């Protein structure tokens, strides 16, 4: 069985090494208002524990969560008990999801409160990576207090690194001027944010990829779209990891096997 243990990558200049696939956990805590091609039930605690154990066995060490992912943070706090040292935890600030509706607050006060709440929910005294969860008005978001507050939290040791999950080229580049990392949409059907990856490569910043498989829609296409999609992503040297949001053990194994094969091929050609 192929794994990702020997394929971990540096996240920019943070000193944090991450697996080339990260486990997205929106499906651990929320099945309302999501953009996946089919409906799903939230996993039981036993199913979630089994999936996390499988992810570790397959060489994943990056978990992506957020306050906007329903009960994901709270559940992970319990599920990861005794495993904190095995995981790089990425969470977010700025977006809340209550009663099926998202709301946004990018103020310094809300950012600080959100960090403190995430620490409590995840039962940890530090967070590896915190991203601002943009509403799409990236430059306006960056002009508010969230980024400065994340810098303060980093100085205090509450977070190891910070960055931005945005939706525009201008926002991604502006965010990387001050931050450590950007989370960018980049896949076989959407590559408009490629300049953010190029900027990151030129300036030693980290890149995480969201919607790597177009929220699962890419998997519905023909001609082995997962291999082609992951090859596109991993061929860019700025990319540290692609976040894959699955709760299906079979899909996770398939994605890891495909990613390992692609990475071995890229390494062989370099």
The coarse silhouette is: globular
Give the assembly state of these chains: single chain
Q: Tally the helices: what do you get?
A: 10
End-to-end separation in angstroms reads: 24 Å
SSE-based structural type: alpha/beta
Low-pLDDT residue intervals, each spanning 5 or more residues: none
Q: How many domain modules?
A: 1
Q: Care to count the β-strands?
A: 12
Helical fraction: 25-40%
How do the strands line up in the largest sheet? 3-4-5-8-9-10-11-12
The CATH homologous superfamily corresponds to NADP-dependent oxidoreductase domain
| CATH fold assignment | TIM Barrel
The fraction of residues in strands falls at 15-25%
H-E order: EEEHHEHEEEHEHHEHEHEHEH
Main sheet? 8 strands, parallel, barrel
CATH class: Alpha Beta
The radius of gyration is 17 Å
CATH architecture: Alpha-Beta Barrel
Tell me briefly what this model is:
The protein has 270 residues and is of the alpha/beta class.
Topology at a glance:
Layout lengths: L8 E2 L6 E2 L2 E4 L1 H4 L15 H13 L4 E3 L7 H8 L8 E6 L1 E4 L2 E4 L3 H14 L5 E7 L4 H5 L3 H10 L3 E7 L3 H10 L2 E5 L8 H10 L2 E5 L14 H10 L4 E6 L4 H21 L1
Parallel strand pairs: 3-4, 3-12, 4-5, 5-8, 8-9, 9-10, 10-11, 11-12
Antiparallel strand pairs: 1-2, 6-7
């Amino acid at each position: 069985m192929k794994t990702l243990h020997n394929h971990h990558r540096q996240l920019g200049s943070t000193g944090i090494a991450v697996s080339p696939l990260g486990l997205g956990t929106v499906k651990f805590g929320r099945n309302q208002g999501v953009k996946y091609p089919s409906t799903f039930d939230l996993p039981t605690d036993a199913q979630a524990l089994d999936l996390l154990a499988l992810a570790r066995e397959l060489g994943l060490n990056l978990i992506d969560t957020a306050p906007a992912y329903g009960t994901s943070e709270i559940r992970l706090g319990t599920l990861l008990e005794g495993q904190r040292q095995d995981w790089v935890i990425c969470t977010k600030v700025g977006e809340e999801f209550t009663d099926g509706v998202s709301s946004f607050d990018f103020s310094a006060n809300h950012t600080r409160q959100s960090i403190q709440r995430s620490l409590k929910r995840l039962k940890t005294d530090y967070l590896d990576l915190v991203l601002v969860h943009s509403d799409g008005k990236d430059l306006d978001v960056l002009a508010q207090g969230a980024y400065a507050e994340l810098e303060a939290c980093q100085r205090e040791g509450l977070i190891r690194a910070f960055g931005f999950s945005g939706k525009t080229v201008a926002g991604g580049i502006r965010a990387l001027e001050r931050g450590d990392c950007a989370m960018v949409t980049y896949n076989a059907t959407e590559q408009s944010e490629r300049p953010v990856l190029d900027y990151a490569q030129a300036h030693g910043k980290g890149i995480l990829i969201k919607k790597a498989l177009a929220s699962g829609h890419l998997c519905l296409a023909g001609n082995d779209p997962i291999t082609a999609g992951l090859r596109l992503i991993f061929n860019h040297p700025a990319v540290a990891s692609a976040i894959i949001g699955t709760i299906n053990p079979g899909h996770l194994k398939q994605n890891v096997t495909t990613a390992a094969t692609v990475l071995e091929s890229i390494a062989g050609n370099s």
